[in-house]
Amino acid sequence: MRARDLVAQIPTIAVDAPVVEAAHLMVERDLPGLIVLDERGRPFTILPGTQVLRLAVPHYCQDDPALARVIDEAHADEFLRTLGGLTVRRALPDRPRELPVTDPDATVLEVAALMARTRSPLVAVVDAGRLLGAVTLNALMSRLVGA
C-alpha cells in the first residue's frame, strides 16, 4: 500500500487566515490538524489542533495544571475567545519543523516514519508540485491496525 491509497481530501488554510477559522474547520471536519498553505498556495506547514490549544490556553495553566483546575468553566471559555484576531501564522511554532510532505509512491512505513519523526497528525501528499491531499493519523493507524 502506498500514500496514494490512503490520501484524503482535507481542507487547507492560508497562513494569514484567522486561527479561529482553522479551529472551526478542524471541529467541523473532525480533523487533527490542517495543511497550511503559503502565499503561493503550496504546503507551508501542518497546524495541529494541539498548537491551537497551546495558543488559547494561558501559559501559566500549561505550566501548572493545578492553576487550570481552579478556573471555572465560564472563565475557561473566555480563553478560546482570545484567539479572535490572531492568524494561523501566530499559532505556528517559533522554530519551523520539518515539513511532513511525501510523494504518492511513499510506502506506509515511510509515511509512518515521517509522521512519527515530525510529530504531525497529517502528512501532505504532493505530486509534481500539486497537493493531492493528506494522510491522516487515523487513516494510517487504521491501516496499521487492520494489517
From TrEMBL:
Q: Which CDD domains match?
A: CBS_pair_bac
User: What InterPro entries does the annotation carry?
Assistant: CBS_dom, CBS_dom_sf, Diverse_CBS-Domain
Which sequence ranges form a coiled-coil region, renumbered to this chain? none
Its keywords, alphabetically, are:
CBS domain, Kinase, Transferase
CBS domain span: 94-147
Check the record and name the Gene3D superfamilies matching this protein: CBS-domain
Q: Which GO terms describe its molecular function?
A: kinase activity
The record's section on SUPFAM superfamilies has:
CBS-domain pair (SSF54631)
Q: Would you tell me the protein name for this molecule? A: Histidine kinase
